[in-house]
Design goal:
membrane; mainly alpha; transmembrane; 97% helix; rod-shaped; transmembrane helix; ABC transmembrane type-1 domain-containing protein; 74 residues
């Protein structure tokens, strides 16, 4: 009888350990996915900001060229 109880207890312990390991793995995977998503969002924001700066610089240069041409003509 004690052998059966001990075996049942061992099975319960193994099941609990497996469940804990699975939960830890799921949490780690979720954390990794969240970190990857955050990194992708940051990269996209940086690229969009860089593009905005490039467009602003191009517009400023174009305006400066037009102003210079108008000044030379006048």
């Amino acid at each position: 009888m004690l052998v059966v109880v001990a075996a049942a207890a061992a099975v319960v312990v193994v099941v609990v350990v497996v469940v804990v390991v699975v939960v830890v793995v799921v949490v780690v995977v979720v954390v990794v996915v969240v970190v990857v998503v955050v990194v992708v969002v940051v990269v996209v924001v940086v690229v969009v900001a860089a593009a905005a700066v490039a467009v602003a610089v191009a517009v400023a240069v174009a305006v400066a060229v037009v102003v210079a041409v108008v000044v030379v003509i006048v």
